[in-house]
Amino acid sequence: MPSLTLTEFKITSTGGPLGAVVTGLDASQPVAPEVILQLKQALRDRHILIFKEQKLTDEQLLNFAFYFGDLYVPPDDVPVLASQPGVTPVVIPISNLDGGYTGTGELAFHSDHHWTPKPSSGSLLYALEVPSQGGDTYWLNLNLAYETLDEATKQRIADLQLITYNPFLRDKNAPRSKYRLDRNIPLTSPVFPHPLVRTHPESGKKILYLDYATEVEVVGLEPQEGAELIEQLREHLNQPRFYYQHKWSVGDIVYWDNQATLHYRQAFDPNERRVMRRVSLAGSRPF
Ligand SMILES: O=C(O)CCC(=O)C(=O)O
Ligand SMILES: [Fe+2]
């Protein structure tokens, strides 16, 4: 007999520009087909899903993630977060403890693995320990960012290709740059241009496929012209009306669509502990 204390499965919009909260679902257990389909539909509509009160092992987290796609595996010559020669861990510790990644600093708005030939379709981040303050993560709706551009800008950028340079290959001593202005600096990495305006592979929505701070270059534009365009677009996308701010609770899993959103993380006190586990899912070539 089903327990009366079991809460009902529910998907509720955050009411903000993106995001839906999922309650009454235990991600450590097999999930019913109709529920998976509702989750996929909700992800398409709301771009991120916030699952509350979860408790799972790495294996259970992976099994849950695989309902939505295959594991993201980077090409051997394209390093990503946590890459080690030849292998990238399957479940990545996002944590400020020894052996973890991303430290305690602020992380600028980005999409995971943007600079690779087939960027990740989505990532799941599961919170095991959270700081008492700071360390919130924000997700930004890149379809809304696109739709709110003026018509002239939409036309101007319609067919442009953008190179996003791999931040894990940049010279750590070189000054940080948000645009590649000097073409004489030799490239240290293979580059993969993607459409600046991409079409979401499931919803068909138009996406402004640009992050906030990684070094980029618009193919075919003079450096100065490209840099000005990108600065204007980045200024436009970085608006609170496009984002949802998430204050983490232990047991939250956030599953976000890397094809439709950017994410940003606030810094937090290095004396506090923040321990999370991340799984990234494979994606397809952007079009
Ligand atoms: O720590 C966070 O909230 C996000 C870190 C991040 O960018 C990621 O896990 O992809
Ligand atoms: Fe990330």
From TrEMBL:
Keywords: Dioxygenase, Iron, Metal-binding, Oxidoreductase. It comes from the Bacteria. One of its GO terms (cellular component) is cytoplasm. One of its GO terms (biological process) is sulfur compound metabolic process. Residues 17-279 form the TauD/TfdA-like domain. One of its GO terms (molecular function) is taurine dioxygenase activity. PANTHER family: ALPHA-KETOGLUTARATE-DEPENDENT SULFONATE DIOXYGENASE. Belongs to the TfdA dioxygenase family. This is TauD/TfdA family dioxygenase.
